[in-house]
Amino acid sequence: MSYNKLNTPLRIAGMLLITALFTNCGKDNNKCLSHEQAYVSKVEGNKTGKVNQVMTFQVYFGCNSGCGQFGSFDENLSGNTRTVIVKAKYEGCICTADAPTRVATYSFTPSQPGTYYLKFLKTPNAYSTDTVTIN
Fold this sequence. Notes:
This protein has one helix spanning 3-27, and strands at residues 33-38, 40-45, 48-49, 55-62, 68-78, 81-91, 101-108, 114-123, 126-134. It has 135 residues and is of the alpha+beta class. Strands 1, 3, 5, 6, 8 and 9 form a six-stranded mixed beta sheet that branches. Strands 2-4-7 form a three-stranded antiparallel beta sheet, with no helix packed on it.
């Protein structure tokens, strides 16, 4: 028996094994996906604006690993106060150990003149408050 005839079944078995591994990796992506509350370190944006003008703010927040990205804003409205919590999205099974700071754009459009308060969660029990005046 020649060397090539012995190797052919092994090659086929190896290729099938590799194909099965790569196919299964794609099916369980949800195991490596989570959303966590993130804490805001800084907020930048205009503190004055006009009625019906979109107000935008750059929100800086920390992540626990290199897989962390912006997921969403959870927003609670009470009068002219907007309490905002950043939800970081962690996607990936193998992540770097760094703790990066990410940036997301938060925006709202005030419908009436007045003073608005934007409260961003900065620690488990504390908020930073930005005051925005709308004319």
